[in-house]
Amino acid sequence: MFAKKGFSSVSMRHLSKAVNMSPAAIYHYFPDKNTLYLETVKYAFADKEEAFSVVWQDNHSAKTKLVLFVTSLIQELTLDPMFHTLILREVVDANPERMKMLANDIFKEQFCFLLSVMKEIAPEKDEHLSAISVLSLCKHHLEMQPLRQHLPGWKHEHEQPDVLAKHVIELLLKGL
Amino acid sequence: MFAKKGFSSVSMRHLSKAVNMSPAAIYHYFPDKNTLYLETVKYAFADKEEAFSVVWQDNHSAKTKLVLFVTSLIQELTLDPMFHTLILREVVDANPERMKMLANDIFKEQFCFLLSVMKEIAPEKDEHLSAISVLSLCKHHLEMQPLRQHLPGWKHEHEQPDVLAKHVIELLLKGL
DNA sequence: GTCTATATGGCGATAGAC
DNA sequence: GTCTATCGCCATATAGAC
Predict the structure, then answer these.
(1) What residue in A sits closest to B174 (Cα-Cα)?
(2) Spatial separation of the C-alpha atoms in residues B73 and A132, rounded to whole Å
(3) Vertex B50 angle, CA B45 and B56, to 5°
(4) Which of B92, B100, B124, B169 is the mutation pick for testing A, counting most A CBs within 10 A?
(5) Cβ-7 Å neighbors of strand D
(6) What are the pLDDT digits (tens) for A117-162?
(7) For chain B, what are the domain ranges?
(8) DSSP sequence for chain B
(9) Domain B1-46 has what CATH class?
(10) Which of A32, A139, B64, B175 could join A175 in a cystine, given CB atoms 3.0 to 4.6 angstroms apart?
């Protein structure tokens, strides 16, 4: 509900109805709405690391790692759009403390793996910008879906994870 | 205020204070809060086409058009972050009617120019996906700024429009 | 641990004076 | 065209019974 409608558009009354409780009962488990929201975000992001554990195995070449990462990320974001929307809401709201927490506790480890792959594949490029570019290509196609489906040239197949992944990987490796 | 805090976190009382009016006075100009918001969005997006009129001039080669477009877009988004945040909020909220309006009335024309450039530069690729990829690389670096400044490898210079534009253009033309 | 009842205050919107 | 006053509603949060 937070991902779909945003923090202030979801009331304790709505939440309580969704779990068949009175609003007051929720306050037995959480001191206030803000804490409840924070716990929700942490919970939603907590188990995402596992999905990528296969990607960074040592016996893979850098290029294979990149291909696997792009594929896995697009897959994960497609299968769990709520996860994706929640990230987006967090970034738009941009609470500095929460940003720091997200960066350090949730994304840092995966980002470091990606950085080291970038260093190997494109040593002459700035690896931070390269890594962010990889993320942007994966994330943005899905993020813009509500808008781009109304733009010229859109096809149904553009929403398929494997079609998207193929496009992104080719673009990254060879350019336009 | 809508860009910064979102529709439901900005009250008519807040708005009225910001313009030194009583809440009731605003209702003389707008029938309700929703209409006021829509007018705000239209106003914020209305004059953005002009910024790109130079880009699509016929005497430019396709490659030059791409370079100019990337440079202009990153410039525009950096100079007017409110514009950028407002797009993002619209996409996250994803009201179907408003998406259609935005696509047809605001973005379509520019997107078509970009599509035709993509067709010329990368004829064997899907031009819709290519065009969205260009947008994603420009937009996402700025969008992620609050988060990525806490991620490893970040430097101050990564926020400079020309550094970003150079990176994006090289990536698009040659790959990693 | 869950409920009903309620305190307290902000919300969008309107009525009607000036 | 702007104001004060207010309606009716919903918000977060708490008190206290069971």
Answers:
(1) A175
(2) 18
(3) 120
(4) B92
(5) A 10-14, 23-24, 27, 31-34; B 20-25, 28-29
(6) 999 999 999 999 999 999 999 999 999 999 999 999 999 999 999 9
(7) 1-46, 48-174
(8) -HHHH-GGGS-HHHHHHHTT--HHHHTTT-SSHHHHHHHHHHHHHHTTGGGGTTTT-TTS-HHHHHHHHHHHHHHHHHH-HHHHHHHHHHHHH--HHHHHHIIIIIIHHHHHHHHHHHHHH-TTS-HHHHHHHHHHHHHHHHHTHHHHTTSTT--GGGG-HHHHHHHHHHHHHH--
(9) mainly alpha
(10) B175
Whole-angstrom CA distances from B74 to A119, A142, B116, B141 are 25, 20, 20, 9
Structure token digits, residue A18:
């969704």
Residue corresponding to tokens 């993509």: B118
Amino acid letter, B47: D
What is the CATH architecture assignment of B48-174? Answer: Orthogonal Bundle (1.10)
* Side chain identity, residue B24: A
pTM for the model stands at 0.94
Class (C level, CATH) for A47-174: mainly alpha
| pLDDT tens, residue by residue, B5-49 | 999 999 999 999 999 999 999 999 999 999 999 999 999 988 888
pLDDT tens figures, A26-52? 999 999 999 999 999 999 988 888 889
**Two tokens at B169?**
């253009």
Q: Please state, rounded to an integer, the average pLDDT across all residues of chain A.
A: 95
Any idea how long chain B is?
A: 176
CB contact at 8 A, B1 and B10: yes
